[in-house]
Write a structure and sequence with these properties.
By secondary structure, the protein is mainly alpha-helical. It has one domain: Orthogonal Bundle (Tetracycline Repressor, domain 2). It is built from seven helices and no strands. The longest helix is centred in the C-terminal third of the chain and has 28 residues.
Length: 181
């Protein structure tokens, strides 16, 4: 039997017959870099990098913007994971914040594409990208703030809050990752 006889009719030579959402995210990450924004990606370009037909993209994402927001969310998750590791390696309570920031800077300098997505798309992308970045950086800010409050409370001190500052408020489910726009 010739090789083409075993292929489904809608499967072009050289293309994968199926692909996971993760494969599309990985393909997009391979295409971006320090000088390339998610907002410059095209659906066809990501599909080609993932080795699928462009129509297969729609099985996982409505459009390229939804893929970009997924990348930003993935970046936020990576940031929280990094901060979690920093907390574990901190020697004492007062070094948790310092360690978190140092690890963050190390990752950015190491050309971590996910963190570059998070930092760049807050200024270069669409309103949806900016909102997603703001939400993810807000989670980072909230975690550092919680650490500062906890550390000060353990030392019998109260954290000074400048007038007009307030904690971020998120819709139900956003903080625990259940909310999706």
């Amino acid at each position: 039997m010739p090789p083409s006889a075993s292929r489904p009719a809608d499967h072009a030579p050289g293309r994968k017959p199926s692909i996971a959402r993760e494969d599309l995210i990985a393909a997009a990450l391979r295409l971006i870099g320090p000088h390339r924004s998610v907002s410059t990606l095209s659906l066809r370009e990501v599909a080609r990098e993932a080795d699928i037909a462009p129509n297969s993209f729609y099985r996982h994402f409505r459009d390229i913007d939804e893929l970009a927001v997924a990348l930003i969310e993935r970046s936020g998750e990576a940031l929280r994971r990094i901060v979690g590791h920093a907390r574990k390696r901190a020697g004492d309570a007062s070094s948790i914040v310092r360690s978190s920031i140092e690890v963050f800077i190390e990752q950015v300098r190491a050309d971590d594409r996910l963190l570059h997505v998070l930092l760049r798309e807050g200024t270069a992308g669409s309103d949806a990208f900016k909102a997603a970045v703001d939400r993810e950086l807000g989670f980072f800010e909230d975690e550092l703030h919680s650490d500062l409050v906890r550390i000060n409370a353990a030392q019998g001190k109260r954290l000074h809050q400048p007038p007009g500052s307030r904690a971020r408020h998120y819709p139900a489910g956003v903080r625990d990752g259940r909310h999706r726009d």
